[in-house]
Amino acid sequence: MNRRTLLATLGSAGLGLWAMKVPAIGADASEKDLLTTALGKFSEKSRTRLLRVVTAAGFDGRIPAAEVAAARETEGQDEDVVMLGLLPLARIYSHSPISKYQVGAAVRGFSGDLYLGTNIEFPGHSLGFSLHGEQSALSNAYMHMEQGISAIVVTAAPCGHCRQFLNELSPDIQVLVDGKPAAKLSTLLPSAFGPKDLGVTESAFPAKEANLGLRNGASDQLTRAALDAARKSYAPYTKAHSGVAVGTRSGRIFRGAYIENAAYNPSLPPLQAALSALILAGGSFSDISKVLLVETEGAPISQRSVAEPILSVIATRVKLETLVAQLS
């Protein structure tokens, strides 16, 4: 099977790289062919550099600013064009077994780093559990402790759900869709309802750390990762800080912080954020060995009602562990 056929096959299946049942992107020839095809808008020199980034051990969906600058120089194009060229790469990570519709996204941080994102769906459960590509890219940047986001590229115009999510985290963001002129979010979401309508004036970016602690301390790496994610969560409306750490058989740990929204429904649960990190690293649901949720004692909401049903589909033998943290 040639690489173009492989890409088309995976795309039509809506499975993404995780379906290849490998813990990370490595030296497999078919995978490298797939990635090379996805980077087809770049010259051979730029493809070689970018392939080195995305196939490196520890890749986590982040393209460093130095690599972005190198691609700009080699291609003779601005950052917007480089970002748009990365969309086919972002799309191949999609896990979309319900819609069969692959979404690719990337955001540009104030640091100059680019962060990929993709959509993830969970068969058998409410569509409301789905992770949108824009949410994936923004949470990727958020978990990397970016100071802020200036632009997003996406394979199609953001839906209303995502415009609301974008408004919470980066109301001045520039939105780019291939073949269409760039637009400020404010023109796509006029008369927006946002944090100020609920009396919140502090922005989500950069992530702030809540003063959370565990009675018995964080004794192991997975617990420390989940507590760290909970501390970084953005929960100005409920104060229900929470975070998830996903441990894998290959030894990596992926963190996800809860990111709340003034409109409530677009809020991003921490498990989805952690799974996004897993998928963007080239990981597989089948590699999940442990999942730990840390949430705030006495909070008005819990993330268990979202996390447990999802795990029942993607990691049937893994039981959600929960620890309660105290906010001081």
What does this structure look like?
- The protein is 34% helix and 17% strand.
- With 328 residues, the chain is an alpha+beta fold.
- It has two domains: 15-33 and 58-198, Cytidine Deaminase, domain 2 (3-Layer(aba) Sandwich), CATH 3.40.140.10; 212-327, Cytidine Deaminase, domain 2 (3-Layer(aba) Sandwich), CATH 3.40.140.10.
- α3 packs antiparallel against α4 and α7 packs across α11.
- The chain starts with a helix and ends with a strand.
H/E series: HHHEHHHEEHEHEEHEHEEHEHE
Total number of strands = 11
What is the count of distinct domains? 2
Computed Rg: 19 Å
The major β-sheet equals: 6 strands, mixed
CATH architecture of the largest domain: 3-Layer(aba) Sandwich
**Overall residue-averaged pLDDT value:** 91
Measure the end-to-end span: 58 Å
Helix content: 25-40%
Q: Count of helical segments?
A: 12
The CATH topology assignment of the largest domain is Cytidine Deaminase, domain 2
Strand order of the largest sheet: 1-3-2-4-5-6
CATH homology superfamily of the largest domain: Cytidine Deaminase, domain 2
The parts where pLDDT drops under 50 for at least 5 residues are: 1-27
Percentage beta strand: 15-25%
**Helix/strand/pairing class, anyone?**
alpha+beta
The CATH C-level class name of the largest domain = Alpha Beta
- Taken from the alpha-carbon principal axes, the silhouette is globular
